[in-house]
Structure formats: structure tokens, C-alpha cells
Amino acid sequence: MPKAILVVDDNRDAADSLAMLLEIDGHDVTAVYSAPDALKRASELKPAVIVMDLGLPEIDGCEVARRMRAMPELEGVRLVALTGYGRDEDRQRTRDAGFDHHLVKPVDLDELGRLVAA
Q: What value does the CA radius of gyration of the chain take, rounded to a whole number of Å?
């Protein structure tokens, strides 16, 4: 079933590429490239899934996730962290911030597809 997805990454090429791959699977995908835009667009779009890089320059992805979890209009959104860090401490940090899932770059597209479809 197609889902509304927000992809957040300050690396435009990475965000746009991931968005295109998700669109091929039939999803309605919006890509943004900054933390402020992520907060604004998430509030407007109310996506089912947000896939977010942690290394955002203005506000890190964990803080953005905390702010999103405090937004009533985003209740029930699935937050997926996408990062180059995969240690146990990194996974704990994303859980504490409110992420539902933690994926390590380069992303396994099959795994991401399963998370989005669930």
C-alpha cells in the first residue's frame, strides 16, 4: 500500500536518490534538506513514515525526532534513523530520541522497504 514518506538529509543527492527509489515502489515521497524544513513539512504533510539522516547541520536528527514526537499531528508516524553510525550506543541514542528504527548507511533497500510497508 502506498504511503506518504518524508526523506530528510542535508546531502541533496542522497535524499533525492532515496526519494526516487521509494517513488518507484509507488510511495508519495517528499525530500527536504534541513532540520527546519523537516519540522515544517512534517507538520504540513503528516507523513506515515519519516526517514531521517542524523547528521543535519542546524539541529541534529535526534533533536528533530524529539521535537516531532512532541507534535500531536505526527502521532503514530514511523521514524526511521538513517546514519553511518551503527554501534550499540548509537542505536540507544536513536531509541531515546524517539526513532522506531535505526538503519546504517548504505541502506539495505529491502529492509527499508519492509519497514515502510509494515
A: 13
Domain that holds residue 94: 4-117
- Count of CB atoms situated within 10 Å of the CB of 85: 15
Query: Half-sphere exposure of 2 toward its Cβ, with a 13 Å CA cutoff?
Result: 8
pLDDT at residue 2, rounded to an integer: 86
Q: 0.90 cut: is pTM over it? A: yes
E strand segments, 26-92: 28-32, 49-53, 78-83
- Using CA atoms, how far apart are residues 111 and 42, in angstroms rounded to an integer? 23
CATH number at residue 58: 3.40.50.2300
Residue 80 has pLDDT above 90, yes or no: yes
